[in-house]
Amino acid sequence: MSHFPWLRFAGAAITFTGLGYMLMKATVPTEEELYNRMAPDIRKKVDEAKALRLAREAEMKQQVAAQVPSTNVVDPDSLKPIWADPSTKNLK
């Protein structure tokens, strides 16, 4: 039976993982730092894409709010996904 040094192996693995994490935290910029380093034209494109994404999300929230009844009682059938509807299983 071999005597593998499990304790040393686990210690080395934890040490290397910790060093890798610390190196990553020290070298990878945050989103704010990355945004501040961008060229103005790229920053403008990023802002436009963000505004478009937020507009789409707001539109989707409006659609969901219009489809969900405003009463406190929620119909359990409305929460089921369409593919779980038994009436559509035999459509071929």
TrEMBL record:
Pfam families: CBP4 (PF07960)
Residue stretches in coiled coil: none
Protein function: Essential for the assembly of ubiquinol-cytochrome c reductase. It has a direct effect on the correct occurrence of the Rieske protein, core 4, core 5 and apocytochrome b.
Entry GO terms, CC: mitochondrial inner membrane
Keyword Transmembrane attached: yes
Major subcellular site: mitochondrion
Similarity comment: family membership: Belongs to the CBP4 family.
Compartments, record wording: Mitochondrion inner membrane
Keywords for this protein: Chaperone, Membrane, Mitochondrion, Mitochondrion inner membrane, Transmembrane, Transmembrane helix
Name of the protein in question: Assembly factor CBP4
